Amino acid sequence: MEKVLLVSGSPKKEGNTMRVMEKCATVLTAQGLEAEIISLAGRKIEACIACAKCVGTGVCVLDDGLNEIADKVRAAKGFIIGSPVYFGTARGDLMNLLQRVGMLSYNNDKFLSWKVGGPIAVNRRGGATATIQEMLMFFFINEMIVPGSTYWNILFGKKPGEAMEDEEGVRTAERFAENVGKLIEKLA
Ligand SMILES: Cc1cc2nc3c(=O)[nH]c(=O)nc-3n(C[C@H](O)[C@H](O)[C@H](O)COP(=O)(O)O)c2cc1C
Q1: Residue with the nearest Cα to atom 21 of ligand 1?
Q2: Ligand 1 nearest atom to the CA of residue 85, by list position
Q3: Domains plus CATH for the chain?
Q4: 76 CA distance to ligand 1 middle (Å)
Q5: What is the pLDDT of residues 122-163, one digit of tens each?
Q6: DSSP of 114-175, one letter per residue?
Q7: CA–centroid distance, residue 14 to ligand 1 (Å)
Q8: Whole-model pTM?
């Protein structure tokens, strides 16, 4: 069974980003795919220190759980990420994860190439499209394939759970997850 890894970049275990990842996982599971969600709540993902020690080894020297997450990304066919918008950008720990996983792939066997996925951003009021664009940079430099949806993958909400009331946002994210699943099946 093909697998999709979903990462919630929020520090909140039951926040809006986690809830939208759960919605996507439900859609993927209904399509017959395996879906696993990793939450960054309670984790501290450090920034890349540019030591280049991953070159040829495929292993990051920083011991904060990133290597285990990278192994899960490697094993999955799909990779969906969600971030709350913080001052018009993605949350730092999530970008740290993307930059380090990106270096592991880029400096070694390019394991990210041809994986299917993309980003979703949750915001209270502004900055979601810029945040989507910021996260897309990771997908496109790594030869990944990003399907579209019926709108950009953005949801509006502040308090935990509030974004689930953004019907169009939820529908857009669900359709995006469905398209990720369809594309994985077509590429298989
Ligand atoms: C440090 C910080 C910065 C934020 N910056 C923005 C922002 O620039 N634009 C916005 O619309 N919402 C901003 N928010 C609100 C969150 O994006 C919003 O509450 C989101 O739903 C949180 O998602 P979560 O429940 O998954 O953590 C910010 C929240 C925090 C804690």
Answers
A1: 158
A2: 17
A3: 3-181 (3.40.50.360)
A4: 29
A5: 999 999 999 999 999 999 999 999 999 999 999 999 999 999
A6: T-EEEEEEEESSS-HHHHHHHHHHHHHHTT-B----SS-SEEE-SSTTGGGG-HHHHHHHHH
A7: 14
A8: 0.98
